[in-house]
Amino acid sequence: SSHFCSRHRAERPIASRPRAPASRPAGAMSVLPPVIALAGGGIPRPVWQLMPEISPGKAMLGSIFLFNAPHMVRMFLMHKAANVIKNENPRAQLAELKGHKAYGEMISRAEGAHVNGLESFPVFAAGLLAAKAAGVDKTLIGKLAAFHLLCRTAFNVLYIGFSTPAPPAPPALT
């Protein structure tokens, strides 16, 4: 492993590697949650106490419903925009309708929320199954699963329903 790293560094120093433009500071999303947890933060107690305890199986079914809900919203909006859903080439129709004057932006956001749910489901399901297999307290698993479903619901509503401009990218540090 160290041989690969030293060889890689020798070929191209880190400072000279091309970087993709960042829309937010690098690592901000990956560092923030652990820092909050280490500082004693987390789910506020009143919210935690309101969370029901649900089984991992029901949580996975709920998550499946929640990652498919934006797809149904998108299909509804596509039908509203075009009056017909073309099953022979739905991806071409989706690409075309993303440019629709009235519904295009919301169709794009609904598609994005659906894809985000598809991407996050395997990690959520694996986490539930691993916690259960490791013997983690059922109440903790059930309440965290319920909180995840609440957050997924909020994400879907906010992501599809509202559009805000992205903050400007910070200047490059070179």
TrEMBL record:
Signal peptide: none annotated. It is found in: Membrane. Residues 13-26 have a biased composition (Low complexity). Residues 1-26 are annotated as: Disordered. The keyword Amino-acid biosynthesis does not apply. One of its GO terms (cellular component) is membrane. Its main location: membrane. Residues 1-10 have a biased composition (Basic residues). Gene3D superfamilies: Membrane associated eicosanoid/glutathione metabolism-like domain. Keywords: Membrane, Transmembrane, Transmembrane helix. PANTHER family: BLR7753 PROTEIN, INNER MEMBRANE PROTEIN. This is Uncharacterized protein. It comes from Zooxanthella nutricula. The lineage of its organism: Eukaryota, Sar, Alveolata, Dinophyceae, Peridiniales.
